[in-house]
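Mods, move this if it's the wrong board.
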Amino acid sequence: MFHCYTNRRTQVLQDFLGKEYKPSKSKLETIVNTFKVKYDFTMTDFLRKSMEKSLQSRNGHLDLFVRFLHGLCLESNQRILGDLLGQTHYSPETIPKVIENLKKMNTINISPERSINIFHCLTELKDQSVHQQIQEFLKSKTREKELSEIQCSALAYILQMSEEVLDELDLEKYNTSKEGKLRLIPAVRNCRTARFGDCHLSETHWEVVASALKTNPSHMVVLDLSSNLYLEEPGIKKLCSGLESPHCRLDKLKLDNCALPDVRCSLLVSALRSNPSLLTKLDLGGNDVKDLTMENLCGYLESPKCRLETLKLRFSHLSDVSCSSLVSALKSNPSHLRKLTLGGNRLQDSGMKDLCGFLQSPDCKLEDLELKRCELTEISCSSLVSALKSNPFHLKKLAMSSNPLHDSGVEFLCVFLRSPDCRLEDLRLRDCRLSEISCSSLVSALTSNNSRLRKLDLSGNNLEDSAVEDLFGLVDDLMSV
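Not the wrong board. C-alpha cells:
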C-alpha cells in the first residue's frame, strides 16, 4: 500500500480506502506532472483514512498494518528499506500533522481496543509525549488531572500490560470525558474490582468485559454494572458468555437499577445457574424479576453448589407468589445466605408469612433482613416475631421502614426484643406510623433486657417530646454498657 502511494497508483488506494476516500480539497485541482495524476493524495490524508478504516474493524485485522504503515513515514525507517519504497519525498510538516491527527481521532462507537492502536501508532512515529504524560500521572499522588481521550487509551494499555494487578478500576474516579472513560475499559483484564456504573456500555464494550472474565487466569472478583440502562440483548449475551466461563472467578456481581426486562434478566441468572459455585453476592434490584427470571433464580438457589451469602432484590416487581417460590428455594438450601434485601416489593402479609417459613428453618443463619416499603402491617410483625423466637440467634439487622406497622406492630417486635436470646443490633422503623406509645414500649423492652441494640431509627414517626426524653434515657443506658 505504501508503494502504491509513492507510485500514485490511485485506483488501488481508492479500492482499499473505499468510495468515501477523497483527496485533500486544497489540492483537488493540482496537476502533478511528475506522476501525471490529476489528484494529489497527501500522506496525511492517506494515513488518516487508513486509520479510520482500521478502527472500523471488529477483530483488529488491520491494527498491525496501520502501525507498520505509520512507521514507514519515518526517514530512519525509509533508509533501512532503501529502494523498496520508491520516491518518498514529502513536506517536513507531514509527521507533526499526522501526530496531531492521531491525537484528535474521533473514536465514538469504536471498540476501546481499536482506540489503543492509536497510541501504538504514535509510538511508531517516535512520539513519546503521551507515554511520558501517563507515567507522570501514575507517579502523582492525586488523580485530579484531566485526561484526554488518547491519554486514556495509553493508560488503559499500560494498566493492562502491568505486572501488578490493579485493585480497582472505577471509571468515575478519572477526570475525563465520557468517551475517555470508555477508552479505559480494556484495563479491566488486569484488575480485581471493576466499577462501570451508569456508563451505557455498547456491545463492543461488553465483549471486552466478557473477555476479562474468560481470561486464564481471570483476576476480576467484583463487577459493578449498576444503573446501566437500556442494556440490549446482544450485550447481555456477551456478558453471559463470560459468566459461564470455567475461568470466571467473580465473587460479587451488581446489576441493580438496570431496568432489565424479565427475558434479559433471565438470561443473566441462567448463566449464573450454569456456574453456581461462583458468587457470594448478587444484586438484581431495580430489574423485572418475574416468571422466567424467578424460575432460573430458584433453580440457582436450590443447587447444592450455590454458596450465595447476599441476595438483593429491591424494587424487583416481586409478587406474593414470586416470594413464595423464592422462599421455597431458600428453604431447600438455607445455610449460606446471610443478607436478604426485598424492599420495595408488594409482599404484603401473605408474602411475609411465606418468608417466615424460611426464617424458622433451623439451618437459616440470616443476619440482615431488609423489608422496606413492602406493604406490611402489624400482622406481618406478629408472624415475624413468631418465626424469630424459634430461631433468634443469628439476626443482627432488621429494616422494616415505610410499612404501616402502627403501635400494635411494634408491640409484637418488643416481645422479640425482650427475649434473652435476641441478638439484634440494628433496628430500622422509619415512617412506620408510630406514636409515643411505640417509643415507650421500645424503651421498656430494651431496658428490661441486656440489649445488644446499637442502632435504632425511628425518624419520620409522630413521637412527641415525652417519647424523645425516654429515648435520651435509653441512649445514656446503652452508652454505659
